[in-house]
């Protein structure tokens, strides 16, 4: 079966490119085979950041850092890409490059292009978000503002690893950039101009194999009617690991990233509706005031490169036991809206949707349309314990949701991740809290019951005993926070 896809066009370093290739060909493979070897292959799984490039997906939007190793090149049609070779203009280095040189931030140099691109993307985002009325040059009016920007620049490189362990000069470079006005790439690089692209790839022809990117639900369903078993991809941050780590080949890939109905994002009062193709980054940007617990937690999910591509639908569809959002959605009593190419939508409670290790109710021809949650105004706490603060897998994660009448619990939801073959609710502990007034006695009883009832797994990330103790401690912490008791700051829980 041939899987050569329709020809695509995209900007690459301000030059218009045309390409046709395999459905699952990665951008990293394309770049290196075309001689653009500044983009490095390190882990080939989106963890190390050595392959970071900048992608502009929307007209007028910022260039965002993404991992080229797990990004299908076919998904770039109508978009703009900058690699480290294309960052300088007129033989003048970008400020991110100059800063790394000035602070001696390059050791062996293998990871350096990725750090440069991550910092350049952060600067562009800062400039674009500053607004045209300020010329993309926000002024630092206080020392605290500079500290805030430095923390943001530090988070910008949280998805990049340095094997020489030379982080001090790299952080100095980030601090230097944070103390100066950001530089917008629009001043030096091609911004998207969709009018200059040829017509969209033809998705009306019979679909046997290759990459397709439908622009409507009807087109998506038409493709699934022809090939119900085709793999669906949005961000691909998990799916593409099958290609890069296990050498699996996907002859048929259907992208969900351009279907407007799957981009729906509404947060009103106590309720949220999140389309399956909404990225973590867009979700984080929408939640600081309306769902602050989730906004805070999302800084712990992956890296900026991953959050710019990964989606809530992918986290659900993968059904990994360490999927970061699954305990949260369980605690929020989420409803999964499932669609099919020849059937009406079905609303499925998440507890029924998740059926085991990487197993869900999804069948060939199904796709996740959206996720509906309520309870945003309840007391919410989401915790994640991992060996690293950024870009790491949870050893144990805990989601707690409480409805309170003064200090009395009228509804309790507790969910855990990373402790079993799937994320799970703890109904017995929830029932034990129902109707109870939060007291020290209740906290002690909850801790003891949790230790007695939990039976986590042991693996390379943590032992059974450690997971059990940490989960019990975090449940008690949630009750203390519900009372408003002063809590010690814990790195990884409170330093987002």
Describe this protein's structure.
The chain has 496 residues and is an alpha+beta fold. The model is unreliable at 132-138 (pLDDT under 50). Among the domains are: 1-199, Ubiquitin-like (UB roll); 379-482, Enolase-like, domain 1 (2-Layer Sandwich), CATH 3.30.390. The strands form five sheets. A five-stranded mixed β-sheet has the order 2-1-5-3-4. A five-stranded antiparallel β-sheet has the order 9-10-15-11-12. A four-stranded antiparallel β-sheet has the order 16-17-18-19, with helices on both faces. The chain has helices at 27-33, 95-102, 112-130, 143-156, 167-178, 217-226, 241-246, 280-286, 292-298, 304-307, 312-318, 325-331, 350-353, 427-433, 440-453, 464-482, and strands at 8-12, 15-19, 52-56, 64-67, 80-82, 210-212, 231-233, 252-255, 265-268, 271-275, 335-340, 343-349, 354-356, 359-360, 366-374, 379-385, 396-405, 408-417, 424-425. The chain contains 16 helices and 19 strands. Helix 2 (95-102) crosses helix 3, helix 4 crosses helix 5 (167-178) and helix 8 packs antiparallel against helix 9.
């Amino acid at each position: 079966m041939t899987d050569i896809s329709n020809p695509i066009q995209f900007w690459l370093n301000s030059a218009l490119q045309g390409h046709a290739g395999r459905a699952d060909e990665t951008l990293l493979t394309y770049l290196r085979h075309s001689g653009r070897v500044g983009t490095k292959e390190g882990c080939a799984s989106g963890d190390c950041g050595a392959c970071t490039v900048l992608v502009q997906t929307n007209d007028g939007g910022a260039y965002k850092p993404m991992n080229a190793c797990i990004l299908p090149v076919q998904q770039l049609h109508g978009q703009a890409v900058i690699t480290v070779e294309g960052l300088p203009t007129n033989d003048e280095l970008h400020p991110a490059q100059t800063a790394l040189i000035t602070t001696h931030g390059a050791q062996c140099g293998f990871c350096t292009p990725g750090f440069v691109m991550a910092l350049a993307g952060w600067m562009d985002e800062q400039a674009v978000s500053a607004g045209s009325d300020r010329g993309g040059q926000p002024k630092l009016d206080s020392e605290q503002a500079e500290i805030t920007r430095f923390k943001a620049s530090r988070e910008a490189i949280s998805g990049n690893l340095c094997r020489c362990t030379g982080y001090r000069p790299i952080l100095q470079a980030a601090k230097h950039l944070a103390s100066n006005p950001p530089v917008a790439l629009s001043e030096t690089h091609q911004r998207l101009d969709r009018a200059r692209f040829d017509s969209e790839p033809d998705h009306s022809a019979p679909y046997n194999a290759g990459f397709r990117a439908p622009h409507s639900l009807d087109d998506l369903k038409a493709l699934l009617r022809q090939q119900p078993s085709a793999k669906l991809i949005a961000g691909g941050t998990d799916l593409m690991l099958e290609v890069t780590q296990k050498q699996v080949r996907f002859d048929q890939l259907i992208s969900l990233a351009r279907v407007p109905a799957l981009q729906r994002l509404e947060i009103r009062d106590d309720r949220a509706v999140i389309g399956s193709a909404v990225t973590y980054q867009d979700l984080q940007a929408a939640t600081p005031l309306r769902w602050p617990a989730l906004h805070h937690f999302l800084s712990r999910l992956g890296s900026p490169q991953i959050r710019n591509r990964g989606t809530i639908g992918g986290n659900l569809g993968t059904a990994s036991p360490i999927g970061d959002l699954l305990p949260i959605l369980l605690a929020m009593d989420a409803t999964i809206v499932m669609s099919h190419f020849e059937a009406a939508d079905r609303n499925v409670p998440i507890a029924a949707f998740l059926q085991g290790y990487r197993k869900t109710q999804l069948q060939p021809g199904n796709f996740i349309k959206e996720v509906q949650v309520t309870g945003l105004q309840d007391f919410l706490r989401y915790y994640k314990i991992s060996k690293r603060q950024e870009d790491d897998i949870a050893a144990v994660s805990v989601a707690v949701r409480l409805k309170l009448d003064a200090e009395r619990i009228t509804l309790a939801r507790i969910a855990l991740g990373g402790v079993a073959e799937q994320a799970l609710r703890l109904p017995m502990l929830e029932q034990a809290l129902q109707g109870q007034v939060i007291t020290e006695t209740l906290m002690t009883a909850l801790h003891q019951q949790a230790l007695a009832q939990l039976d986590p797994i042991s693996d390379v990330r943590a032992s059974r005993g450690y997971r059990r103790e940490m989960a019990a401690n975090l449940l008690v912490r949630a009750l203390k926070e519900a009372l408003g008791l002063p809590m010690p700051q814990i790195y990884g829980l409170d330093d987002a």
